[in-house]
């Protein structure tokens, strides 16, 4: 990732591990660091063939799985949406 982003991380996992190591930083500095690492990771993924490879693999393997388990996927999506709505309601004080 260093060649494309200026960050010395060998791969996305190393970048994520570095971003999680913000103990001792102020909230603002930790957030700024995490954002900069996330942007570097996204930039790297965009500049490499990773995005195209993931899209191809998702079409090749993901679409058939989603078709086979459409009911389960729909149930999972409904549960996630319900949880997000509940969390928003709780966060709003309701």
Summarize the structure.
By secondary structure, the protein is an all-alpha fold. Helix content is 79%, strand content 0%.
Topology (SSEs and partners):
Blueprint: H1 2-5, H2 12-19, H3 27-47, H4 50-68, H5 70-91
Key features of this structure:
94 residues, 5 helices
What structural category do the secondary elements indicate? mainly alpha
Helix content: over 70%
Task: Indicate the overall shape.
Answer: flat
Radius of gyration: 18 Å
Number of distinct helices? 5
Q: Uncertain regions: pLDDT < 50 for 5+ in a row?
A: none
| End-to-end distance | 44 Å
Number of strands: 0
SSE string, helix = H, strand = E? HHHHH
Largest sheet, in brief, is: none
Strand content: under 5%
Give the integer mean of the pLDDT values.
Answer: 84
Could you characterize what this model shows?
The chain has helices at 2-5, 12-19, 27-47, 50-68, 70-91. The model has no long low-confidence stretch (mean pLDDT 84). It is flat. Helix content is 79%, strand content 0%. It contains 5 helices and no strands. It is mainly α and 94 residues long. The N and C termini lie far apart (44 Å). The longest helix has 22 residues, at 70-91.
